[in-house]
């Protein structure tokens, strides 16, 4: 599920970042904050961090962290996708 989440943007609201995401089993995109869950509670929005100059969303599913960058292709039944599981430096 986490590898199928599409991230279309990240915004700063006050001092908190929010991501605009579309989960594979949900009909619409939505804004999410750190700590919220997707896909009927199976996927946790764990962190939003920077990878170089581009922020990424770190999701967690079944104890595994999955990194999704803005606009990265999703992994679905027909393709390999580009999700990665990586340690990242803190968001600055």
Brief digest:
The chain is an all-beta fold.
Helix and strand layout, with pairings?
Blueprint: E1 6-13, E2 16-22, E3 30-33, E4 37-38, E5 43-51, E6 54-61, E7 64-69
Antiparallel strand pairs: 1-2, 2-3, 4-5, 5-6, 6-7
Give structural attributes:
single chain; 92 residues; mainly beta; SH3 type barrels; 4-stranded antiparallel sheet; 3-stranded antiparallel sheet; 48% strand
3D structure, described in words:
With 92 residues, the protein is mainly beta. It has a single domain, classed as SH3 type barrels (Roll), CATH 2.30.30.830. The protein has no helices and 7 strands. The protein has strands spanning 6-13, 16-22, 30-33, 37-38, 43-51, 54-61, 64-69.
| Uncertain residue segments | 77-88
Measured between the Cα atoms of the first and last residue, the distance is: 28 Å
Order of helices and strands: EEEEEEE
Largest sheet: 4 strands, antiparallel
Number of strands: 7
Q: What general form does the structure show?
A: globular
Query: In percent terms, what proportion of residues is strand?
Result: over 45%
Mean pLDDT over all positions: 82
Side by side, the strands of the main sheet go 4-5-6-7
Tally of individual domains: 1
Q: What's the helical proportion of residues? A: under 10%
Global Rg: 12 Å
């Amino acid at each position: 599920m986490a590898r199928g989440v599409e991230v279309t943007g990240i915004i700063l609201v006050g001092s908190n970042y929010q991501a605009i995401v579309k989960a594979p089993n949900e009909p619409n995109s939505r804004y999410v904050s750190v700590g919220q869950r997707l896909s009927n509670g199976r996927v946790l929005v764990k962190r939003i961090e920077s990878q170089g100059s581009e922020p990424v969303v770190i999701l967690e599913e079944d104890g595994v962290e999955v990194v999704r960058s803005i606009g990265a292709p999703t992994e679905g039944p027909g393709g390999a996708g580009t999700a990665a599981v990586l340690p990242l430096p803190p968001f600055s």
